[in-house]
Amino acid sequence: xxxxxxxxxxxxQEYLAYRTNLFLEVIGGFIAQLVIIAVWFSIFKDLKTExxxxxxxxxxxxxxxxxxxxxxxxxxxSQGDEINDDINQGSLSGFLVxxxxxxxxxxxxxxxxxxxxxxxxxxxxxxxxxxxxxYFVFPFSLTNFLVFCLAVFLGGIxxxxxxxxxxxxxxxxxxxxxxxxxxxxxMSIATGSLIPLSLFPDTWQLVFxxxxxxxxxxxxxxxxxxxxxxxxxxxxxxTVLVWISALxxxxxxLWGRGLKKYSAxxx
Length: 267
Known about the structure:
mainly alpha
């Protein structure tokens, strides 16, 4: 554990040198979320209704702010470029002779960046929450908030391993940007970070329920807003753990086969 804490510390110092870039990256997502919130204010005003799709205006604003925080600080972090470059540029060779697990090294760096982007950008969202305090729903209990945080954490792990798998196929491809771009496009909708998945037609909801993406944003926010029953929460956590276990299993298998190919080329 000390080795990976040292990696996280070094990564923290490295990213601090580029904190302006990270901050601007977060600002972009923040502005986009404000635009979406403004649109929903207009929708409620034009429809002259208090509830749309089972969400009151305060619930919808809270959902969108929560989704913005998750999307900006959790889902934006793991893109896989570093993993792809380490494999294709030969940096992996140097890591393999060091006394640590390379996948855990990448995981440590990824979560360190998540923490830094969160710290750099959370102030903006807190200001908006204060301004829109009349439209913000606070957690109704500490337990509810802690369960929500656990769901977000597991969603972050799921997110990492999904991109990790699509990054280590760099053992067989010169660039993995294409597959990762497709996943990001799908995620922009299927996580529920732009619009609650329950507002989609039943057929689309069925498709979303078969995919793991909803556990990255929609499921945690349903817990936060108290819209998930105890049975749904238990089932959701069980399902996300199955998904994480499956992705870890696939990643271990791909990593083993990829190392054999990597060694065969003599990198």
